[in-house]
Design brief:
Its EC number is 2.6.1.9. Its cofactor is pyridoxal 5'-phosphate. This is Histidinol-phosphate aminotransferase. Residues 32-350 form the Aminotransferase class I/classII large domain. The protein has two domains: 6-39 and 260-350, Aspartate Aminotransferase, domain 1, CATH 3.90.1150; 60-257, Aspartate Aminotransferase, domain 2, CATH 3.40.640.10. The termini are far apart. α4 (82-94) crosses α8. The chain has helices at 11-14, 22-25, 60-70, 82-94, 111-118, 136-141, 164-174, 229-238, 246-255, 258-283, 306-315, 340-351, and strands at 31-32, 77-80, 101-104, 122-125, 146-152, 179-183, 205-210, 223-226, 288-291, 298-303, 318-319, 321-322, 332-336. It is globular and about 55 Å long. 43% of the residues are buried. With 360 residues, it is α/β, with parallel strands linked by helices. It has twelve helices and 13 strands. It has a seven-stranded mixed sheet with strand order 2-8-7-6-5-3-4, sandwiched between helices. The protein has a four-stranded antiparallel sheet with strand order 9-10-13-12. It has a two-stranded parallel sheet with strand order 1-11. It binds pyridoxal-5'-phosphate (PLP). The site of pyridoxal-5'-phosphate has 13 residues, from α4.
Length: 360
C-alpha cells in the first residue's frame, strides 16, 4: 500500500513493526487457542444507565475493590484500558526519548518493545538463559541509562514463573535508578507467587495486572497498575481524562465483587486441572518433542516439524500461536487452555501426525 503522506510520519513510527495480535493474524476456525483468552463468555448485565455523563477517570468502586483484592490501599491502584495502556503510560511518564532506555528479556510479551519504539525510546534486551530464567549478571551489566525494566512473571510465552530471588536481585541493584515493572497478567493461575507484597521494601516496584485472562474479560479492556502512591500520581498526569467508559467500570466492578472473585477462582481451578491433564497426554504423542509445564492458562509444545503441525491444525480450524521465530523457542507453538472439548479436539487432531509431521 503506498501512502503519499508517509513522509510526514515520525521516523520511529515509519520504522515500527506493529504488535501482531492474535486478532490481526486472523485465521478461520472454531477452536481458538491462540490468544490466552478464557474459552467461554461470562454473563454480565449493565446497571449504570447514565451514559449522558462523562465517567469518573478512576471509578472509585473499581479502585477500592481491586485494592482490597490485591491487599493494598486505593492510593496504590491505577485502572487503565488494559495492562497494555499501563505499559505505555509508564514509558510516557518516565522515559526521555532519545536518552533513557527500556530493558526487557526475550522471549517475552511483545508490547514492551512496541510501546517503547512508538515513543522513540531505545530498547535493550537481555535474553533469558537456556533454562528460561533471568540472566541477572548480564542484566545488571547493561543497566546504565535504563529507566524501566519490564519483567513478565509468569512469562508469556514460556508459561512459567521467573525465580523470585532473581527478581529481588534486579530490584536491589536498581533501587533509586530505575522502575522495575513486574507484569503479573497471569498471576491468578499461581497467586502465591505474586511479588506485590514487596512494594513496601522496594518503592520502585510496579506490578501490572489485567481482567483479560483469569477474569475472562479480554474484550472489556481493563487493567491495573499497582505501585507507590507517588508513581500512581505521576501516571495520572499522563492518562487520558476518561480512560474507561461507564459500561467498562460497571462490569469491572461486578467482576471484582466477592461473587465475581469466587467465580474467577473456580475458573482458574478448572483451567489448571484441564492443563494438568492434557500436558502429560500430549507429551506422549509421536509428533511432540516436548510439552512444557506451565504456571498459567497456556503452555508451549515443541514439535519435530512445527510448520507442518501449525498449518495442518490451522486447516482443520484449530488455531495455535506460532512462537518459532522467538529466541530459544525453535519448533515451539503456544497453546491456550480451552474447554475440555477443545483440548480433546486438539489431542485427536495431533494423533494424526507422525514424528516427521506428516499426516499418517
Ligand atoms: C495479555 C497480556 C497483557 C495485556 O493485557 P490487557 O489488559 O488485555 O491489555 C499484558 N501482559 C501480558 C504478559 C499479557 O499476556
Amino acid at each position: 500500500m503506498s501512502d503519499p503522506m508517509s513522509q510526514l510520519v515520525r521516523k520511529n513510527v515509519r520504522d515500527l513493526t506493529p504488535y501482531q495480535s492474535a486478532r490481526r493474524l486472523g485465521g478461520c476456525g472454531d477452536v481458538w487457542l491462540n490468544a490466552n483468552e478464557y474459552p467461554t463468555p461470562v454473563n454480565f448485565s449493565l446497571t449504570q444507565q447514565t451514559l449522558n455523563r462523562y465517567p469518573e477517570c478512576q471509578p472509585r468502586e473499581v479502585i477500592s475493590r481491586y485494592a482490597q483484592y490485591a491487599g493494598l490501599t486505593p492510593d496504590n491502584v491505577l485502572v487503565s484500558r488494559g495492562a497494555d495502556e499501563a505499559i505505555e503510560l509508564l514509558i510516557r511518564a518516565y522515559c526521555e526519548p532519545g536518552q533513557d532506555t527500556v530493558l526487557y528479556c526475550p522471549p517475552t510479551y511483545g508490547m514492551y518493545s512496541v510501546s517503547a519504539e512508538t515513543y522513540g525510546v531505545q530498547t535493550k534486551t537481555q535474553r533469558l538463559t537456556e533454562a528460561w530464567q533471568l540472566d541477572v549478571p548480564a542484566i545488571l551489566q547493561q543497566i546504565d541509562s535504563v529507566k524501566i525494566v519490564y519483567i513478565c512473571s509468569p512469562n508469556n510465552p514460556t508459561g512459567h514463573l521467573l525465580k523470585a530471588e532473581d527478581i529481588r536481585q534486579v530490584l536491589t541493584a536498581t533501587a533509586g535508578k530505575a522502575l522495575v515493572v513486574v507484569d503479573e497478567a497471569y498471576i491468578e493461575f499461581c497467586p502465591q507467587a505474586s511479588v506485590v507484597s514487596w512494594m513496601q521494601q522496594f518503592p520502585h516496584l510496579v506490578v501490572l495486572r489485567t481482567l483479560s485472562k483469569a477474569f475472562a474479560l479480554a474484550g472489556l479492556r481493563c487493567g491495573f497498575t499497582l505501585a507507590q502512591p507517588g508513581v500512581i500520581q505521576t501516571l495520572l498526569k499522563v492518562i487520558a481524562p476518561y480512560p474507561l467508559s461507564t459500561p467498562v467500570a460497571d462490569i469491572a466492578s461486578q467482576a471484582l465483587s466477592d461473587e465475581g472473585l469466587s467465580a474467577m477462582r473456580a475458573r482458574v481451578a478448572e483451567l489448571n486441572a484441564i492443563r494438568d491433564t492434557f500436558i502429560p497426554r500430549l507429551a506422549e504423542l509421536p509428533c511432540v518433542e516436548q510439552a512444557f509445564l506451565s504456571d498459567t492458562n497456556y503452555f508451549l509444545i515443541r514439535f519435530h516439524d512445527s510448520p507442518a503441525i501449525f498449518k495442518g491444525l490451522w486447516d482443520q480450524g484449530i488455531i495455535l500461536r506460532d512462537q518459532t521465530k522467538n529466541p530459544l523457542l525453535g519448533g515451539c507453538l503456544r497453546v491456550s487452555i480451552g474447554t475440555e472439548a477443545e483440548m480433546e479436539s486438539l489431542y485427536q487432531a495431533l494423533t494424526q501426525f507422525g514424528p516427521k509431521g506428516a499426516r499418517q
